[in-house]
Design a protein that fits this description.
The complex is a heterodimer of chains A (340) and B (233). With 340 residues, chain A is an alpha/beta fold. Chain A contains 13 helices and 10 strands. Chain A has one domain (16-311): TIM Barrel (Alpha-Beta Barrel). Chain B folds into 2 domains: 9-96, Methyltransferase, Methionine Synthase (B12-binding Domains), Chain A, domain 1; 104-232, Rossmann fold (3-Layer(aba) Sandwich), CATH 3.40.50. The chains are: A alpha/beta (340), B alpha/beta (233). Chain B: It is an enzyme of class 2 (transferase).
């Protein structure tokens, strides 16, 4: 194994990832509804600024501006023919910024969900999903990404398709899912079930974990769920900077840099190795997180009560990983399946 | 489950069959639902009774368990698909028999936003609850909403947004309705991952709906209230 991320992980207890892409770009004038990926071609200096924001704040790893860079998403902007180009450019700009930083910084090629529901429930077939992710992966590879970074996935079928695409592209990869519905993904997957699913993959990620979701506390509960499965794979924590609030016509995430610093340290104590933010996480947050990780000593693994006290409560009483108890919701009884 | 006795739907009493239909909806068994609907029609049930007492009642259970984090999107999609099978049989008959309407909803994702999974779920659950739904799709400007409201004359306008950057556009639509004196013609429901109740109030919606199940409950309550008010006046 000679990939850059594995090497960096071998020399460090924790790595600081980056924060928000969208929140930062909107502050630079991206209009809602426009595809951020088009800026890789049209506004390269702004994308360099985005990347430098994370690098200058101390990130060891940052994601390229290619989250929606698959054919299914770009089609909504009539740019489905530009998948390879936009991903290559996004990674090239990242490579340039990382290589000019004077230290080792990982360029992670972001791959977001297709936005489609997969068969049999929806219309997206496994083969087509693999093909779309593979096309994007090749663009990121050509642009010099160190690793592919699959994120905000909710269906295990889609995660598996991305794993296959990474294998086809011959690229190391990482993959995180978004646990935003009663502690599970939208499709009902628990943190424990994800860890087991990842363990069975033929082309395993270098690290797996959670991003986005609902606030920083929920994300840490998810990390604890991963750790409890006894996995030996590095865990990624990329939580939102609090909850979005509507103030005077604008959206603000209510998580302060201090809160995200606490979150970062707690994430490390929970067992995460790669720690960053997601929506609402700006360079100021990242700086506070870096400082906290460097200056505060590692502590014991926090329990849920400690997390709640330190950075706030959870969005649901349970997350599907607990042993059956009084809070465990049960499926409707007397189920039957007819022979057919 | 090979030791399980095969259930013959036609052998069940009406009450047992309705119970079974609720189970089958829950399990997303489309063919079984279609068969049961035909059996009840043969037994002389009105299409409206089949809709409300079996299908809508069954989808209400699905909705509650979705709201409570027991069922998730895949199960709800399967249940909605089974419901659709039953509705396809009932729809023409409902029109023929002049059955009362639950209400009508126009729904769409707002301008700048191209996400539609949540909105589609709401549309499916609303149809499952017996509402007529006109789906405007994604990326709708205020003009498109106005035109559709004018044409369809719904009881409810539903707006969806997944992005924090597109949420504020809901206020543009509501403000425009108010300026044209049309705001009180419709019940306005809003939803989407980044929204919350506080936001719904701040922009002047009638309600924020956390998920598709809550949307259905809220729609039922507010439509009933509106009808009562109209009757009282």
């Amino acid at each position: 194994m000679t990939d850059a991320l594995t090497e960096l992980l071998a020399t460090r207890d924790w790595l600081l990832a980056d924060g928000a892409t969208g929140t930062n770009l909107f502050n630079m004038g991206l209009q809602s509804g426009d595809a951020p990926e088009l800026w890789n071609a049209d506004e390269p200096e702004k994308i360099r600024t985005l990347y430098r924001g994370a690098v200058d704040a101390g990130s060891d790893l940052f994601l390229t501006n290619t989250f929606g860079g698959n054919a299914s998403r770009l089609k909504l902007h009539s740019a489905e023919a530009r998948v390879h180009e936009l991903n290559r450019l996004g990674a090239e700009l990242g490579r340039e910024v990382a290589d000019a930083s004077g230290r080792r910084v990982i360029v992670a090629g972001s791959i977001g969900p297709t936005g489609e529901i997969m068969a049999p429930m929806g219309s997206l077939t496994h083969a087509l999903a693999v093909e779309m992710f593979h096309e994007q992966a090749e663009g990121l590879k050509a642009g010099g990404a160190d690793v592919l970074w699959v994120e905000t996935i909710s269906a295990s079928e889609e995660y598996k398709a991305a794993a296959e695409a990474a294998a086809l592209a011959g690229m190391p990869w990482c993959g995180t899912m978004s646990f935003d519905t009663a502690g599970r993904t939208m499709m009902g997957l628990t943190s424990a079930a994800m860890a087991q699913m990842v363990d069975k993959l033929a082309h395993k990620p270098l690290a797996f974990g959670a991003n986005c979701g609902v606030g920083a506390s929920d994300l840490l509960r998810t990390v604890l769920g991963f750790v409890d499965t006894g996995t030996s794979m590095p865990i990624i924590a990329k939580g939102n900077a609090g909850i979005p609030k509507y103030v005077d016509g604008h959206i603000h995430y209510d998580g302060t840099p201090d809160l995200m610093a606490d979150y970062a340290v707690l994430a490390r104590d929970c067992g995460a190795r790669i720690i960053g933010g997601c929506c609402g996480t700006m360079p100021d947050h990242l700086r506070a997180m870096r400082e906290a990780l460097e200056t505060r000593a590692a502590g014991p693994r926090p329990d849920l009560e400690t997390i709640k006290t330190r950075i706030g409560g959870f969005s649901s009483a349970v997350d599907g990983t607990e042993a059956d108890g009084p809070d465990t919701p049960a499926r409707r009884g007397n189920r039957r399946r007819r022979e057919s | 489950m090979s030791d399980e006795e095969e259930i013959i739907l036609a052998d069940l009493s009406d009450d047992e069959l309705v119970e079974q239909m609720m189970d089958d909806l829950y399990d997303g068994l489309r063919e079984e639902i279609e068969e049961s609907v035909r059996i009840l029609l043969d037994r002389g049930w009105t299409p409206y009774d089949i809709l409300t007492k079996a299908l809508v009642a069954g989808m209400t259970i699905v909705g509650h368990d979705f709201r409570d984090g027991i069922l998730f999107v895949p199960e709800v999609l399967l249940a909605a698909n089974a419901m659709k099978g039953g509705m396809a049989i009932l729809k023409p008959l409902l029109v023929e028999t002049g059955a009362p309407r639950m209400g009508k909803m126009v729904i769409g994702t707002v301008k700048g936003d191209i996400h539609d999974i949540g909105k589609n779920l709401v549309a499916m659950m609303m149809e499952g609850a017996g509402f007529e739904v006109v789906d405007m799709g994604i990326n709708n400007a205020v003009e498109a909403y106005l035109e559709m409201l004018e044409r369809e004359q719904p009881d409810i306008l539903g707006m969806s947004a997944l992005l924090t950057t597109t949420m504020p556009y809901m206020k543009v639509v509501i403000d425009t309705l108010a300026a044209k004196g049309l705001r009180d013609e419709y019940i306005v429901l809003v939803g989407g991952a980044p929204l919350n109740e506080e936001f719904g109030r701040a922009i002047g919606a009638d309600a924020y709906c956390r998920d598709a199940a809550v949307a259905v409950e809220t729609a039922k309550t507010l439509v009933a209230r509106k009808h009562n008010q109209m009757a009282a006046n």
